[in-house]
Design goal:
It contains four helices and six strands. It is an alpha+beta fold and 182 residues long. The strands form two sheets. A three-stranded antiparallel sheet has the order 1-6-3. A three-stranded antiparallel sheet has the order 2-5-4, with no helix packed on it. The chain is globular and about 60 Å long.
């Protein structure tokens, strides 16, 4: 999913038809409204990644004394999910503000949740098919309205955004009806 695709959808919701984010409308990218929309999409992207659909990454890191600094990872660590030793066994660890600590040094495979990098107009959003451009565009529209002082419209878009998030969070798996006693 492309940032410009989401912003074009949000522009349609907001009625800002004079803004165009397709490849041949580069003049719109310097508009103050476009920069506000970019700020809004970054806010929504961070919210979705940190609260609803976590972005997970697995990396192997080395430690000599059991301390693994967060800056050793390629992404900004939000939360550590698991730490495994070389033989694949889960290892106990303790989190600190700037590092995590295991009992001893060695090579560890760490699975962690990370915050997405700041988006630009040419960026791609890091989500799978559960997150549609419409869902992100509704969140962007809500944030844009709130940033612009259009509070009633912002609340309306926020309700639609929260409902779309709720629907995306529902599992589409097997549903069963509880057996009834006769």
């Amino acid at each position: 999913m492309d940032v410009t695709e989401v912003l074009d959808t949000a522009v349609g919701y907001l009625g800002l038809e004079d803004l165009c984010f397709s490849k041949n409308c580069a003049a719109a990218l310097s508009d103050s409204r476009a920069l506000k929309l970019l700020r809004a999409i970054n806010l929504v992207n961070s919210e979705v990644a940190s609260e609803y659909f976590p972005l997970l990454k697995e990396e192997t890191v080395e430690s000599t004394d059991g301390i693994i600094e967060y800056i050793a990872f390629s992404e900004r660590v939000l939360d550590v999910v698991t730490v495994k030793s070389q033989d694949g066994c889960c290892v106990r660890y303790k989190l600190f503000p700037s590092y995590l600590k295991t009992k001893e040094g060695g090579s560890y495979t760490v699975t962690y949740q990370y915050l997405p990098p700041k988006l630009e107009f040419s960026s791609l959003l890091p989500y799978d098919v559960k997150i549609s451009p419409r869902l992100i565009a509704l969140g962007v529209s809500s944030e844009y309205c709130l940033l612009s002082g259009m509070y009633e419209e912002g609340v309306m878009f926020d309700k639609k955004y929260r409902e779309a998030l709720r629907m995306a969070l529902l599992t589409k798996g097997e549903r069963t009806v509880k057996a009834r006693g006769w």
